[in-house]
Every structure is written in structure tokens, then in C-alpha cells.
Design a protein that fits this description.
Strand order of the largest sheet: 4-3-5-6-7-8-9-10
Number of strands: 17
Largest sheet: 8 strands, mixed
CATH architecture of the largest domain: 2-Layer Sandwich
Shape: globular
CATH topology of the largest domain: Fructose-1,6-Bisphosphatase, Chain A, domain 1
Bound molecules: 6-O-phosphono-alpha-D-fructofuranose
Radius of gyration: 19 Å
Strand content: 15-25%
Helix content: 25-40%
Length: 335
């Protein structure tokens, strides 16, 4: 029997300490946690449940949908539409805003999520995750529209992710630090195991998809080449590289041992400002990273300050250990 603090107990304590997690938000985060437990079961069943592989369909991103993309999206909708706390939802897997069906109690929050980030890794059994962001619904109409979601990341009430890895973890912030919870499958509870997560300011590890090297802008070319030069170059020390192609896994590694993650603006597809989506990847992860003492930038602008223009807007992302992100920002300023 574990004697740790479970998620619901933690949120109540956090509200007593900081007044940052009102009972409605506690209730919503509790239902999001239930959603992530159900997704963890679906993902961990793997090939046993016949949910591997892709569908014929594409999402609005033009990406082939995995069966689990659709299944996990449905899980999030089904559980959270009945939380009684939401006016609407938006997802990577849906073109437009989702309104809470008639007959269900509505609330004053908006939930934006990527139900299965890194889903291309599912078939090869590499860690994937869920990313979520909670905003206030400021509109007056009973049904929110896409424009109601387009709030800067600084307006997030809460943000977090679930990582379906060797263990299932839930990591979240309500604006007063970052805390990690591990799923105890024996009792079906998320238990506090990583209180007060902070990112080391210095690191020797960078993460980037190096196959895009020829498309990067000069500041990123310079930063990466200096890391690769190691002891023989201007940094005077060796670096290590990682690329999991699952943002949740990369950010979690950085929260645990530091690092810098970059999916920068590149010339591969000039029409795209970046690959990662602002509302349900960059913003929630940026709030977590900043709350853990790191930085998150496009290279030219703090990501949390961006005024969104579209639900599925893409942005360049450079986040992680403060000293390294500051260096990359400096190289952009010099350029
Ligand atoms: P690439 C997953 O599809 C994702 O959105 C992030 O989780 C991940 O960091 C990135 O894209 C991987 O992109 O181009 O390396 O496959």
C-alpha cells in the first residue's frame, strides 16, 4: 500500500498553499488524469488490442492518422465533456472547436490537447504522450468558437502532459512550479513522485532532427556545429545528442537531467513557420519549462507571448536549459 500523496490530495494541498487551483480546476484535472489512465491502458495493450497501424484518413495537418490517434481523441472527448467544467475543447485531431453536447453541464474552461503526441512511434514501441492546456472561456455565447481559444500561452490556467513510457507519468503545472506523478497501477492512482521539478541551467545534451540540417537558419547551424565540435571547438567541451521524435519524451528528459530541444524554423517548407503546433504542443510545454526554471523561445520571441492566429498554427520551438536557450537566442539576435 503506498503512503504517498495522490493527485487529488496534491491539488487540494496546492490550492491551500497557492490559491491557484480552484475546486473546478481540481475537478477538471482529475478527469484529465482519468483520460490519461485510459489512454495508458490502450497504448500499453499495444498489438494485443489490434489498434496498431494507420487509417486511410488524414488529420487537418495532412498527417496520416494512426488508429490510436482517433481512439485517444475519443477518450479525451468522452471523459472530459462530462467533467462539468468545460465550455469547449480543441484537439490536434479535429479541424474545429468541439462544443459540449446539449444535456451535459457546462463550465468556464477550455481544454486544448494533443491526445497522442509522437503517435508515429506507437507501432515501433517508443514512448508517446498526451499534451494538454487549460484556458478560461471568456466568451458570452453558450458555444465557444475557435477564436475563443486563441489566447497567448501566458493565459493558461494549467498545462501538463502524460508520458506513456517505461512507467506512465503525469507532469503538470498550475503556475506554481512543476510536479510529477507516477501511475500506481495496483491502485489506479497517480502518486506524487517528482515534487518541484527543475531544469538544470547548464547541460551537455541537445535534441534536434539532424536530417534537416541543410534547411536550418544560420543561428541554429552555428549552435549545433559548435556542439558537434565539442572540446575542439569554441564550447571547449563535448556534447551528447538525442532525438526520440516524441516531444513529450524529450521534454521529460530535459526536466529530469537538462538539455535543449529544438524544432526550429527551417526552409524545408517555407510556407510553414515550424513543425510544432502552438496551442497544444508549444504553449503547454513552454509553460511547464518556464515554471521549471527553463526558457522557451522561437529564437526571436518568447513562445508564451505569441498571440495565436489559428487553432493549428505552427511555431519554431527552442526550449530547455536556460543557459543554452539564451545562447541560441543570442545567436539569432547577432544574425
Ligand atoms: P520529426 C511528433 O509528430 C512531433 O509532433 C513531436 O512530438 C516530435 O518532437 C516531432 O513531431 C518529430 O518530428 O520531423 O523528427 O518526425
Amino acid at each position: 500500500m503506498h503512503t504517498g500523496t495522490n493527485l487529488i490530495q496534491f491539488l487540494a494541498d496546492e490550492h491551500r498553499r497557492t490559491a491557484s487551483v480552484c475546486p473546478d480546476v481540481q475537478a477538471l484535472l482529475g478527469q484529465i488524469a482519468v483520460s490519461c489512465k485510459e489512454i495508458s491502458n490502450a497504448v500499453n495493450q499495444g498489438a494485443l488490442s489490434g489498434v496498431m497501424g494507420s487509417l486511410e484518413s488524414e488529420n487537418i495537418q495532412g498527417e496520416t492518422q494512426k488508429k490510436l490517434d482517433v481512439i485517444t481523441n475519443e477518450i479525451f472527448l468522452r471523459i472530459n465533456e462530462r467533467s462539468g467544467q468545460l465550455a469547449g475543447m480543441a484537439s490536434e485531431e479535429m479541424d474545429d472547436a468541439y462544443t459540449i453536447p446539449d444535456g451535459y453541464v457546462r463550465g468556464k474552461y477550455l481544454l486544448v490537447f494533443d491526445p497522442l503526441d509522437g503517435s508515429s512511434n506507437v507501432d515501433v514501441n517508443i514512448s508517446v504522450g498526451t499534451i494538454f492546456s487549460v484556458l478560461r472561456y471568456e466568451g458570452k455565447a453558450s458555444n465557444p468558437v475557435a477564436a475563443d481559444f486563441l489566447q497567448p500561452g501566458t493565459r493558461q490556467v494549467a498545462a501538463g502532459y502524460a508520458l506513456y513510457g517505461s512507467s506512465t507519468m503525469l507532469v503538470l503545472t498550475t503556475g506554481h512550479g512543476v510536479n510529477g506523478f507516477s501511475l500506481d497501477r495496483n491502485v489506479g492512482e497517480f502518486v506524487l513522485t517528482h515534487a518541484g521539478m527543475t531544469i538544470p541551467a547548464e547541460t551537455k545534451e541537445f535534441a534536434i532532427n539532424a536530417s534537416n540540417q541543410r534547411f536550418w537558419e544560420a543561428p541554429v547551424q552555428r549552435y549545433v556545429s559548435e556542439c558537434v565540435a565539442g572540446k575542439t571547438g569554441p564550447r571547449g567541451r563535448d556534447f551528447n545528442m538525442r532525438w526520440v521524435a516524441s516531444m513529450v519524451a524529450e521534454v521529460h528528459r530535459i526536466l529530469i537531467r537538462g538539455g535543449i530541444f529544438m524544432y526550429p524554423k527551417d526552409t524545408k517548407d517555407p510556407a510553414k513557420a515550424g513543425k510544432l503546433r502552438l496551442m497544444y504542443e508549444a504553449n503547454p510545454m513552454s509553460l511547464i519549462v518556464e515554471q521549471a526554471g527553463g526558457l522557451s523561445s522561437t529564437g526571436r520571441q518568447r513562445i508564451l507571448d505569441i498571440q495565436p492566429e489559428g487553432l493549428h498554427q505552427r511555431v519554431p520551438v527552442i526550449l530547455g536549459s536556460r543557459q543554452e536557450v539564451e545562447r541560441v537566442i543570442g545567436y539569432h539576435a547577432e544574425a
